[in-house]
Amino acid sequence: MVVLKFMVFATISCRFLWSLNTSRDDFELMDYTKLISEEHFAVGHPVVIVLPHGEQGSGNNAVFYLIKNLCAAVRWPIFVFNARYEMEANVFIETHKHGSYIILLSGPCQDWEEHISGFRQQLSILRFGNTWESWNPRAKFLVSVMSDCPHFYTTLISRAILNEFWSHGVVKALVLFKKSSEGRGKKSDQNTSHSTQDTHMEIQTWFPYKNSQRCDPAEGTVPVKVFTIRNFSYIRGNDIFKGHFIKNLHGCPIRVHVRIYQPFVNPPKRFWLNDSYYYDSYEDGLEIELLRIIGKSLNASLVIVD
Ligand SMILES: *[C@@H]1O[C@H](CO)[C@@H](O)[C@H](O)[C@H]1NC(C)=O
Ligand SMILES: *[C@@H]1O[C@H](CO)[C@@H](O)[C@H](O)[C@H]1NC(C)=O
Ligand SMILES: *[C@@H]1O[C@H](CO)[C@@H](O)[C@H](O)[C@H]1NC(C)=O
Ligand SMILES: *[C@@H]1O[C@H](CO)[C@@H](O)[C@H](O)[C@H]1NC(C)=O
Ligand SMILES: *[C@@H]1O[C@H](CO)[C@@H](O)[C@H](O)[C@H]1NC(C)=O
């Protein structure tokens, strides 16, 4: 039954949420999450909020605060995934394509591997569970990490997240962190001229195909890019989800599968490497020519196989 509950999607009753009492301690991350949603998520398309995996602690208030504010914005239908909270909810299975996703992670930084494994589980339930029809890897994904982690952990976390997304075909993804000067571990001993609470946000992402070293990352090799955000205007002024320059693949390989069908795809030329090994090279045919034109205009190196 626990599993069943876990897989359930719920529409939330926004009316109910108004009665929640949230204390205002640490909601900046949620304010930025909301702002990014408002600026960059398509109006009218469902927003899926994936609640933190595992048991809850102090993060509850912030989560409620976010949902309440997104509800108030009335821009999208909102679905809550992994509804462990006691909410007034109507369970249903919907079939509309999801427009965007907000995924919340929380917990101690040093246990990041555990959170990533929860994240992986949620992602695969979204994709293969009873909501598979709505799963939309072309959507925009925002992961908000509700822990103040040192830089060492944030890159590990975002690399693991972006890598996981990549394996699901997701490329429009941002990981959002709140950073107070040196993370929680080290309270600022230094006596700086800045105020003790030098807080900012960090967006971590990566741009596949940005250059020939960033084609298809092997496990753990996602080159993470970090952007420091100090105010709302940065979010407003930048197309933060861009960066996936599929107009220029910088020589990255694109695999194309073809079937021999003359005169569109003529049989390949066979090149023998030695007595027992060969490779086939598709070079002739109208469609092969077309592929070459496309490949050239995308600056991609084509790998044509059957
Ligand atoms: C709601 O917030 C008010 C003011 O912050 C506080 O006095 C009250 O005890 C809170 N109620 C609950 C149920 O937490
Ligand atoms: C910070 O520096 C000022 C002036 O140098 C000094 O008076 C103050 O005690 C220092 N504070 C801490 C916490 O070291
Ligand atoms: C907002 O932050 C950006 C950099 O993140 C900075 O260039 C800009 O001047 C800031 N704007 C304001 C109004 O502080
Ligand atoms: C195509 O990709 C190669 C390899 O990265 C690069 O050197 C070249 O500048 C690119 N061509 C264009 C037109 O961008
Ligand atoms: C033939 O070439 C393949 C690939 O280069 C190599 O692995 C294999 O050992 C070679 N076999 C012989 C008999 O040379």
TrEMBL record:
Residues 1-19 form the signal peptide. The keyword Signal applies. Keywords: Signal. This is Uncharacterized protein. It comes from Coptotermes formosanus. The lineage of its organism: Eukaryota, Metazoa, Ecdysozoa, Arthropoda, Hexapoda.
